[in-house]
């Protein structure tokens, strides 16, 4: 059982669950492709630049895979659960009645590919969660549960 199932209270049901969007991997893949292309050149400086980009791309890809594995974004009939991290954890469990602010930010790429950043405000604390798939539906599900 995962984080979500272990933290549901009695009578609590998951209404909507979303994941991180695949666009999370765009930056590492671009770094890897550019690094691979530069690695194949004969000029020493550019060749070593390619090795450096390959290294940064691999590190970034591993980090983002860990973020993808450790992320849970769910709306239940009682609260909103937002959790990221495998080794270290950032979690926000917000009772629906205490939901003060939910801000959705989408770039042009986010609008095209349907992902965005969710920013939650509760009691003066602000937490942001980027690359959430279909953030407008996530917000709609929260609003429907609030009533």
Task: Write the SSE topology.
Blueprint: H1 3-6, E1 14-18, H2 26-39, H3 44-69, E2 72-76, E3 79-84, E4 90-95, E5 101-105, H4 108-113, E6 115-122, E7 125-133, H5 135-146
Antiparallel strand pairs: 1-2, 2-3, 3-4, 5-6, 6-7
Helix pairs in contact: 2-3
Description:
Helix content is 42%, strand content 30%. It is built from five helices and seven strands. Helix 2 packs antiparallel against helix 3. The protein is elongated, with a radius of gyration of 19 Å. The two termini are 30 Å apart.
Short description:
This protein has 147 residues and is an alpha+beta fold. The protein has helices at 3-6, 26-39, 44-69, 108-113, 135-146; strands at residues 14-18, 72-76, 79-84, 90-95, 101-105, 115-122, 125-133. Helix 2 runs antiparallel to helix 3 (44-69).
- What would the principal axes of the Cα set say about the shape? elongated
Query: What structural class should be given to the helix and strand makeup?
Result: alpha+beta
Residue share in β-strands: 25-35%
Largest sheet: 4 strands, antiparallel
Which features characterize this protein?
147 residues, alpha+beta, four-stranded antiparallel sheet, three-stranded antiparallel sheet, elongated
